[in-house]
């Protein structure tokens, strides 16, 4: 890294002198790096302009999920939900990020029962008792917003409902950890401890991720981990937290379509996701 002097302009583009801007934060980060933590690379710290753009994109994602929550019910196909998401996203002036992303064929991911994530919409009909994750990512003016929710179709078993509720609780346990100079490990630790305490397991093969300027950026947000380890959080970072919580084993298998991840034991799994911003004094949920 090039050495920047106290009286130089700050690297963040604020136009302020370094000593009045990010100098103290950088000092603190380099001290923490000496203790084995990881400082965030500069390019994942968003500028105020990027934050505004990502905020608006997250608003689209939230509206699309609100629309789905009003219409989803027993008897509809996942292809129909895909069409709703595609059309409403376009109506809001945005583009569905999954479509053609690394060859993904649809506009939304829909993961039912034992499907951990990345389920592909098709002619399957939702039936009473299904637990369904709908994962929406929108691109508005080049900025990404990513979120998912669970939906319980008709009458589900008590154990399915409990899993869905626990997964939601895990998301908020993770979000609660977020503030400047906390770590990604703090998030994973909070989620893992809570989930395992309830007798569930936490998926390791997939995780949250930096998001905003791209679909998937640094850091990888592990939903398992140890306190005070990994990347340090600083204001202006934007990432998802999206714990996948399993009834049985944490292990996953990939189906032949190359996308659909299922639990290795085919037991139930549930996931909730938000895009969040690290603020000066804590966290803001953008979706
Ligand atoms: N929205 C998913 C996530 O939370 C990623 C989906 S990638 C896709 O990271 F290609 F399957 F859409
Ligand atoms: Co995500
Ligand atoms: Co997502």
From TrEMBL:
Q: Does the keyword RNA-binding apply?
A: no
Q: Which UniProt keywords apply?
A: Aminopeptidase, Hydrolase, Metal-binding, Protease
Superkingdom of this protein's organism: Bacteria
- Which Pfam family would be a valid example here? SEC-C
Q: Name one GO molecular function term.
A: initiator methionyl aminopeptidase activity
Q: What is its EC number?
A: 3.4.11.18
**What CDD domains does this protein's entry cite?**
MetAP1 (cd01086)
- Residues the entry annotates as binding a divalent metal cation 1: 135, 146, 273
Catalytic reaction equation(s): Release of N-terminal amino acids, preferentially methionine, from peptides and arylamides
Gene3D superfamilies in the cross-refs: 3.10.450.50, Creatinase/methionine aminopeptidase superfamily (3.90.230.10)
Q: How is the cofactor bound?
A: Binds 2 divalent metal cations per subunit. Has a high-affinity and a low affinity metal-binding site. The true nature of the physiological cofactor is under debate. The enzyme is active with cobalt, zinc, manganese or divalent iron ions. Most likely, methionine aminopeptidases function as mononuclear Fe(2+)-metalloproteases under physiological conditions, and the catalytically relevant metal-binding site has been assigned to the histidine-containing high-affinity site.
Peptidase M24 domain boundaries: 52-280
Q: Sorted alphabetically, which SUPFAM superfamilies does this protein's record hold?
A: Creatinase/aminopeptidase, Sec-C motif
> Which cofactors is this protein said to need?
Co(2+); Zn(2+); Mn(2+); Fe(2+)
Q: Which family does it belong to?
A: Belongs to the peptidase M24A family. Methionine aminopeptidase type 1 subfamily.
Outline the subunit composition. Monomer.
Function as written in the Swiss-Prot or TrEMBL entry: Removes the N-terminal methionine from nascent proteins. The N-terminal methionine is often cleaved when the second residue in the primary sequence is small and uncharged (Met-Ala-, Cys, Gly, Pro, Ser, Thr, or Val). Requires deformylation of the N(alpha)-formylated initiator methionine before it can be hydrolyzed.
- Name the chain's protein: Methionine aminopeptidase
Source lineage? Bacteria, Bacillati, Bacillota, Clostridia, Eubacteriales
